[in-house]
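Observation: inputs received (chain + uridine-5'-diphosphate).
Thought: call the complex predictor directly.
Action: predict_structure
Action Input:
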Amino acid sequence: MSVPRKNDTNLTPRGPVLVTGGAGYIGSHTNRLLRERGVETVVLDNLSTGHKAAVEGAFEQVDLGDRAALDRVLQKYKPTAVVHFAAKTYVGESVENPAIYYRENVFHTWNLLEAMRAHQVGAIVFSSTCATYGNPIEVPMTEAHPQAPISPYGRTKLHMEHMLADYAAAYGIAFAALRYFNAAGAHPKGDIGEVHVPETHLIPLVLQVALEQRREIAIFGDDYPTPDGTCIRDYVHVVDLADAHLRALGLLQAGERDLRVNLGTGTGYSVKEVIDCARRVTGHAIPARVAPRRPGDPPCLVSGGTHARDLLGWVPARAELETIVRDAWAFQRRHPQGYAGHT
Ligand code: UDP
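Observation:
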């Protein structure tokens, strides 16, 4: 079959789509975008870290480890595709307790794939990560960069990619592995955004300082081999990420079988640049203090891949750091306690 490309106009995904982890950060934004495009969805989430207040449309509180419940959901909604966000995502926790990561990431994905086989669901878009590459041997990192993850988290995500590729080859379940760089920002409406408990990510923590919920931001290391000594990351707006999922799903449904795509803007910002940007956006002095390096942080992670543009026709529309921080700030100001009190 000839594989469609970005210029094809008919790549809007078809539903119903099962969104696992759709109560989480990137899942809730993708679920909203699917629904805005008229695609029927059902969110499946065990609410272990997700937020019911972030879910729109049909919702089933189900754990992916519960095969019988999964079967009931697939039987009831008859999805034609899955967008799979449900996973554990903390590098540090994965080092301390890898068993949770192998169960919830690897085993639960196997469970999902087996249920998809049984119910003949033919396509899956999967949240992968640049953490599957491990320490960069060259930056920017293209999709061809060797995958040698350095944490249990990254290894489970790589196992999941391998499982998807094997299932695609053997059973014809088409897949897209979208390797995110640093997801950031919030919906421009300001009603859904990033809420992690505990929060470990730079931008929300910096904004918590601006809200005076924290006294200062710790800069984890200023002696890296980068221009200002702090780590460089490629921050990508969550709504742009959501858009890439729809494009990938449309391509799979149009005949593509195997997509492995980096999602980053290609531009890196240092920790100090992020803090300066937040100072401009919030008007707050945001005190910062240099702290020791955080174990496992590579100095620089920037996407260099062109598959997103070439295959998906994806060019991030909100690539400016200031736009990302502004949207995150609008959300956090409206939700200083996260989703608590928002139903
Ligand atoms: N970072 C920091 N102070 C913090 C949290 C993060 O200096 O309180 C740094 C971290 O070392 C990394 C960058 O900010 O270089 C982005 O970290 P984050 O946890 O947001 O994302 P990650 O790159 O780990 O996925």
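Thought: report the result.
Final Answer: Residues 182, 200-202, 205, 217-220, 231, 233, 271, 294, 297 surround uridine-5'-diphosphate (CB under 6 Å). The two ends are 46 Å apart (CA to CA).
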